């Protein structure tokens, strides 16, 4: 009776060793798991000399071209480093793309020895790629010449390659999109410092707004003189102080004389108190809420964080309005069916954690048609909301996990910290807008860049044009 020698025990994790032809047996296999990201697609495009993503063809077309090369590279990686490994000569490969992977999908890539020829050291391996749903995405065979000697090497960590998948031209593309819409008339409330006054004038110069400066004229002229700004081309509503400026701005919006409000150097509470006052005429059936529109090079598309500036500790009904406002904004910026992640610290419903109960209730409200226009899931921890790999590791199957368009935070403190972390550590560009009133409100911070202020004005412009035909 003869026995087939057992396959050698894999070396320690810190070292990689190949498998010579004599060590291979039919049925031996190796596998890896990888997630196809927008960075992968962009990198492959650049390596092939194609135009950067977004400049030539739709993302879906680029994915159709990139998926073959990406999956072939993964199989080649397995053949060249695991089975048989170092010293392998690749002769050929045939693949059938049954369900080409899309950005965000996680593939399990497996090769298995099907046949071996001792006279030529040729080995035929079955190759399969299975997606996170257990469906076979790619199937085929590879033929190689297996190495005839053992090679062992230290496992190394490759340097990280970062591609700006969001593109550095996001701001320019936004400006190009809104330019044909023309400007809107905006009440700029108490812009009595150089940054806010300069932003209003720059937005005017960019063709975004026709500003009405609502502030003490003498104070405006003093700020303009000191900063070297010209007020001759803009309208001024002279009021005695910031409180009066907020009230007058709300009146102009109520009377239809302006289509948006823009915060100047007064405090947010002062402006919002005038907007939500019972006699302001600006209230709707919804709670007002703030949305940050963010774009970071570390995430494949812009997304919304809400509410990080207005509602301190919203209850369930207020959160429902926060979600509805964010969905409306997503529709305005071109996301037809936004994926809404209701954030909490964990992914399971825990009675001791109110945020998880609210998340579950919001999702059920969406199931019952009380919240429409988007796809909701929660509770989701932040990592599972933005990373398919993290969601896959925790066994979360969701249409939202890893690809959220909207992140709904439990309260203002967590939302503000999240947004600021993304801006200062995640290289995110931002725009800030308040919805839920009869006009959009540009709500920016004193520390915001000019680009952020202009982007906020651009989004207010888009909302104002949309609301001309379907007012809130």
Give me some keywords for this one:
472 residues; alpha/beta; Thiol Ester Dehydrase, Chain A; Rossmann fold; Isopropylmalate Dehydrogenase; 3 domains; 13 helices; 18 strands; elongated; disordered N terminus
Name the CATH superfamily classification of the largest domain. Answer: Isopropylmalate Dehydrogenase
Work out the strand percent: 15-25%
Mean pLDDT: 87
Number of extended strands: 18
Strand count, sense and barrel status of the largest sheet are: 11 strands, mixed
Straight-line N-to-C gap: 83 Å
Q: What percentage of residues falls in helices of 4 or more residues?
A: 25-40%
Major sheet: order of its strands? 10-9-8-11-18-17-12-13-16-14-15
Present the secondary structure layout:
Blueprint lengths: L14 E3 L11 E7 L2 H10 L11 H23 L7 E9 L8 E12 L4 E9 L5 E10 L6 E3 L15 H9 L5 E6 L4 H12 L3 E7 L1 H11 L7 E4 L3 H13 L5 E4 L4 H9 L12 E7 L7 E4 L9 H17 L6 E5 L10 H14 L7 E6 L1 H5 L1 H6 L12 E3 L3 H13 L4 E7 L5 E2 L7 H20 L3
Helix pairs in contact: 1-2, 3-13, 4-13, 6-7
